[in-house]
Write a structure and sequence with these properties.
This protein is an alpha/beta fold. It has 11 helices and 11 strands.
Amino acid sequence: MRKIVSLAAIVAAVFAAPAGAQEVKLKAASFLPLTQSFGVHFKRWVDETNKRGKGVLQIDAVGPEAIPVPEQPNAVKSGVIQMHYGPPTFYTGTMWEGEALSLSETTIKALRANGGWAYLDKLHQEKMNAVLLAGLGDGVKFFVYTTTPARADDKDKPMAGLTLRSVPLYRVFFESLGARTVSLPPGEVFTALERKVVQGYGWPRWGVKDMGWLPVTKYRYGPGFFNVNVNVLVNLDTWKKLGEPQKKLLNDMALWLDDEWPKWRAAQDADEDKIQKDAGVQYVDLGGWFSKRAHDAYWADLEKKSPQHIPHLRKLVTQK
């Protein structure tokens, strides 16, 4: 109860006046610190939104130091916070369908055009009590990083004997590679690697240095698999209270992000590759079977969990 009251106090009196009458302030929680990895890009979006939204709407963004990651999805669902920035893997307990974006082969802009985004938005409203406003990360792949060499010549169980930090997104895939998986918040990964509690982890192409894991990371296994997807959610009750000026601003900024993201991605891809190479991280390409197994395994798992929606979503997110 104490924790609930504390979180609620953060956002007290947000809607003291009608939404259209004065500047509205929203509290947003990011799954990563705003100075690290993909948290940087959320701050970039928030800063631009606040710049354009003076007198209309302002977003106060905080990281996991203010609201722990496991609590964030439920906090936006219940309205304790008004916005959440994080991947759908952290709210699979409420809905699995968001993970279709992690297997997407197209852009968010294309999904807005083919109806895929609207379909997912409807599911988010029904199951998460949240509007699926925006997202970023498409085109950035995941890899397996390890502190010790894997069995690269074993196409059946190359990660046998290793314990890997995992999340629901790639648990099934890692287990198919022979690894033992454990769940850890990002903030505990370095200590676990240093103490050899785990010997590796799944993470995108970006952010290994930002997360502080580069000194203990020696190998990166690919080719890349899945698709980074970090969503911007708005509590549905909050959304309904907003005036048209606030809704228009947020919708406009969602479309702005669709156009800006490819530029941000291209600039950072080269930087991240150089960072890892300079640090001596050895890239090992295991061949096309590696990424294919990842996708096949997760699609099969998702279809079992949501047979009503996943087959249709699969068609939408794999349209080129």
